[in-house]
């Protein structure tokens, strides 16, 4: 569990949601592939993607993933709404049996947990698609410094919720809705997860756990400067490919 004292976005309370998260290997491989291509092509900007799966009662599966096209909105980075709506529908059309829907977003972060930059994009998609949207973070630093032990994966998964904001809380991360002049602050709690996989797939999962090419992860872990980046999604899935229009460059901020 991440130490809450080092990150003001983490709640000191334990989760009472009793959620069970089942992570499928294809999601890990998609994220790893995305990071590798982002680095090899010297792309600028944040690594942000969506994860689709199912929710059956308190059990949530994460089964497919795809990278997202983002845009700058003032000092924030958000998902390109029109692009995202079309892309999500394409994936939902392909994956109808069983039906999959948006359950999480993924991005990069230090081991200490979510960053303030993650909040606007999470709020955006929660408002439009799923108010229980989770956040999956990939931690390149744990690969670079060799801190992964015991077959652990360089990822963590968080649920978000709102609680009264403090006097010194970042007003940009708060939302209206709390009485007596106070606002609600988004907080995060880390969730346990299991990797749903057979013996053959564990070979690929082990590859991700061991770094999936530490040189490329090292490049991706370096904060990029402002610039243009392509969101082509060409290797994110075998089912769909982005059109040339989807590959147009867009200005981004770094999430690291």
UniProtKB/TrEMBL annotation:
Name this polypeptide is given: MPN domain-containing protein
Membership in a protein family: Belongs to the peptidase M67A family. CSN6 subfamily.
Biased composition (Polar residues): 214-223
Boundaries of every MPN domain copy: 21-164
Pfam families: JAB
PANTHER family: COP9 SIGNALOSOME COMPLEX SUBUNIT 6, EUKARYOTIC TRANSLATION INITIATION FACTOR 3 SUBUNIT F-RELATED
Region of interest (Disordered), ranges: 214-256
MF-aspect GO terms: metallopeptidase activity
Superkingdom of origin: Eukaryota
GO cellular component, one term: COP9 signalosome
